[in-house]
C-alpha cells in the first residue's frame, strides 16, 4: 500500500460496500476518503445511478461519479450461488459491511445479520433503510423526497403563504449517509473494548425527523404548528435575504452586538436603539417592520462591496451565489474543496480536515477491483 493510503485515519479498515443509490454510497465514499479500503460490489448492470443523467461521460452519469470515489468496484450477481459464496469470502475479510437492500433480501439469500454475526463476530453490519425493519412502516422502501414530505421538512420549507417545497438537494439521503458513518465509527470504537461487532442502522425516516430543529423544539414547547417563513429563520431576525441597490444579500444577525454593528455600517444607529428592535425577541416579533426599515437603508448600497464591509465589521453576511460561482470562489480553492484525479474526474472534496491524517484521493470512480488490498503494518 502507498504511504498516502497509510496516512488516512481509517487505514487498514476494510469496508464492503453493497449499497447503491445515495445514502449508503455516500457513507462508503466518506470512509474511503479517510483511508478505508472500500470494495464496492454492484450487480452486473451496475448501480442504478449510473443512468441518472444527463450529464454522462462514457455512458455513466455524473450522479454516480459524485458518490463513488475512493472505491474499487467489482460485479457480482448475488441471485446466484457461486457469487454469494464469493461474497462470503469477501465478508470474511471485511471489518464493515454496508448495505441498503430491501429489508429481507439478504435474509432470503442466507446472508442475514443473525447468520453472519455468528460466523464473523467482529463484523460491523451497517444497514441504511427507509423506515427500519419493523413498526407501522417497517420494511417499506424509503425515498428522500417522500421522507421530506412525511417528516415535516417540506411543511416548513417554502415561501410564507406558499406551498410546501422539497429542499433542493437530497438532504435526507445525505444526512442518513453521515449518520451511517457516525454509527460505524461508534461501533468500531466499542469493538476496541469488546472485540465484538454489532448491527448499525441509519434510517431515512429517523434522519429526516432529526433535521427538524428548531421547529420540533418550538412545537414541543408551545404546541404551535411551525409555519413556512421563506428564507427567514423562525426564531432569529434579521436572518433572511434582503434586497439591496443591486443583488440580494443574506444577513444572519444573531445577537445585539452584531445588530448594532449592522446598523452602524448602514448609517442607521437609531435602529439599534428602537424599542421594537433592542432585543433579539423584539427583532423577531417585529420582523416585518424591521425588514422594511433595513431594505429602505440597503437600497443605497451595492451588495458585493457591502458584504465585504459587513464581514469586516463581524456582521455575518453573504452574497447569494449560484452553484458555479460557489465552486469557483477563491475561498473554495483555498479550502481545497474541489478534488481532481486524472484527466476527467472532478468532485467535491472531504469537508473534514484532519491535521495529521488528512483525507486522500486514491481511486477515481469505476476503478476495478477484485479483492481487498493487503493490510498495512498498523491496522484498525
TrEMBL record:
<keyword id="KW-0808">Transferase</keyword>
<dbReference type="Pfam" id="PF02515">
    <property type="entry name" value="CoA_transf_3"/>
</dbReference>
<protein>
    <submittedName>
        <fullName>Acyl-CoA transferase</fullName>
        <ecNumber>2.8.3.16</ecNumber>
    </submittedName>
</protein>
<feature type="region of interest" description="Disordered">
    <location>
        <begin position="359"/>
        <end position="380"/>
    </location>
</feature>
<dbReference type="InterPro" id="IPR044855">
    <property type="entry name" value="CoA-Trfase_III_dom3_sf"/>
</dbReference>
<dbReference type="InterPro" id="IPR003673">
    <property type="entry name" value="CoA-Trfase_fam_III"/>
</dbReference>
<dbReference type="InterPro" id="IPR023606">
    <property type="entry name" value="CoA-Trfase_III_dom_1_sf"/>
</dbReference>
<dbReference type="GO" id="GO:0033608">
    <property type="term" value="F:formyl-CoA transferase activity"/>
</dbReference>
<dbReference type="InterPro" id="IPR050483">
    <property type="entry name" value="CoA-transferase_III_domain"/>
</dbReference>
